[in-house]
Predict the structure.
Amino acid sequence: MKSCLNSLKFSGLALLIVSLFAIGIAQAAIEGGDAKKGKILAKEKCKYCHVTGAEGGTMTPLSKTQRQWERFYSKDKHNKKAPGTWDKINPNELIDIMQFMYDHAADSPQPATCGQ
Ligand code: HEC
């Protein structure tokens, strides 16, 4: 009986770990943006700083994996690298841009560049 109870506890714990993991995966996705709009917006709002020779250097969706884009966005890393440069970008437009980056990231099903 005791070992039966223990295995029950164990499967409960395993289930908890699995569900926490699933939540983790669900959170590690950029969702809700419009990637088509994002592609156009990226040319308008990012490209002038992100071409070869410009201050930000070359940057395309392929610059990062999906997980890296997610972390870059959620941890507000651009603000650390180039403070204030995203301030004028509307948050809804930014999510569209991030959706485009994410959907076409290096490890995405459809890797793409910004036409560079
Ligand atoms: C006003 C100029 C400017 C604009 C606009 C700008 N960036 Fe940047 N970005 C920079 C600078 C400067 C850096 C830091 C480059 C470095 O560290 O060498 C940077 C860094 C980055 C990096 C980090 C690259 C790495 O090595 O991890 C990414 C990704 C990035 N920018 C994406 C974007 C996106 C997406 C947009 C548009 C929403 C954007 N940037 C708009 C100037 C800009």
